[in-house]
């Protein structure tokens, strides 16, 4: 049993599904939406939903700077889809003035897969997760356009023109996926976060 309290940012998006996936991994997971709650957790999950809305609400509820600071000072954080956008340092096709928490040295493109294929599912090889392949659900998903040297690509997808785009990345204590493992009932990506990122960091603090 890993002794971390994981908060799921509960401003908008598929909060309940992430809490379920984390609970299935045996961790203490709860919805967080106040400063006090966010100060208490030892790790954070930012759900899928709408990145512009989550960012606006974080700013409106005065959580933006606290979350940015906690991420900067090493809190393990996992973002799926909108959550990936919110962890990215740079966003293409953002709305005007769109803020992110940042932390991962990468450029993501919002809604990158285009209208005709807004939503689809596929099987992906995910570095660090053994067979079978991970079923990945993409819903108006971003992809990663470029990453800095500190960022490890864990999964990629090939687009219609044959180009590869990262759709899962890790940068130290931060993990992000373009897709939604919280919607498939397969909790191996959450387990990867809990066991390889949260536990590793909890362990390294002695
Ligand atoms: N397109 C959404 C955004 O920009 C993300 C979609 C999702 O999280 N399923 O935030």
From TrEMBL:
Protein name as it appears in the record: Pyridoxal 5'-phosphate synthase subunit PdxT
BP GO terms, sorted: L-glutamine catabolic process; pyridoxal phosphate biosynthetic process; pyridoxine metabolic process
Gene from which this protein is expressed: pdxT
Organism of provenance: Candidatus Nanopelagicus limnae
Keywords from the named record: Glutamine amidotransferase, Hydrolase, Lyase, Pyridoxal phosphate
Top-level taxon of origin: Bacteria
This protein's pathway: Cofactor biosynthesis; pyridoxal 5'-phosphate biosynthesis
Catalytic activity: aldehydo-D-ribose 5-phosphate + D-glyceraldehyde 3-phosphate + L-glutamine = pyridoxal 5'-phosphate + L-glutamate + phosphate + 3 H2O + H(+); L-glutamine + H2O = L-glutamate + NH4(+)
GO cellular component, one term: glutaminase complex
Subunit architecture: In the presence of PdxS, forms a dodecamer of heterodimers. Only shows activity in the heterodimer.
Active site, renumbered: 81, 180, 182
Protein family: Belongs to the glutaminase PdxT/SNO family.
Function: Catalyzes the hydrolysis of glutamine to glutamate and ammonia as part of the biosynthesis of pyridoxal 5'-phosphate. The resulting ammonia molecule is channeled to the active site of PdxS.
Taxonomic path: Bacteria, Bacillati, Actinomycetota, Actinomycetes, Candidatus Nanopelagicales
PROSITE patterns: GATASE_TYPE_1, PDXT_SNO_1, PDXT_SNO_2
EC code: 4.3.3.6, 3.5.1.2
GO molecular function terms listed in the Swiss-Prot or TrEMBL record: glutaminase activity; pyridoxal 5'-phosphate synthase (glutamine hydrolysing) activity
């Amino acid at each position: 049993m890993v002794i971390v309290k994981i908060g799921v940012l509960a401003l908008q998006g598929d909060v309940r599904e992430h809490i379920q996936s984390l609970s299935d991994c045996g961790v203490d997971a709860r919805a967080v939406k106040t400063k006090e709650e966010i100060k208490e957790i030892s790790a954070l999950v930012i759900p899928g939903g709408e990145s512009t809305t989550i960012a606006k609400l974080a700013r409106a509820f005065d959580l933006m700077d606290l979350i940015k600071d906690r991420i900067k000072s090493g809190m393990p954080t996992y973002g799926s889809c909108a959550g990936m956008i919110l962890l990215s340092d740079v966003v293409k096709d953002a709305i005007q003035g769109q803020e992110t928490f940042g932390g991962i040295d990468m450029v993501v493109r919002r809604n990158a897969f285009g209208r005709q294929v807004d939503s689809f599912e596929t099987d992906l090889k995910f570095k660090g997760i053994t067979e079978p392949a991970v079923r990945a659900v993409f819903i108006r998903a971003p992809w990663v356009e470029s990453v800095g040297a500190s960022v490890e690509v864990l999964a990629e997808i090939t687009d219609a023109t044959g180009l590869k785009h990262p759709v899962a990345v890790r940068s130290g204590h931060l993990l992000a996926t373009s897709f939604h493992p919280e919607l498939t009932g397969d909790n191996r990506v959450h387990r990867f976060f809990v066991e390889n990122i949260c536990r590793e960091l909890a362990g390294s603090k002695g």
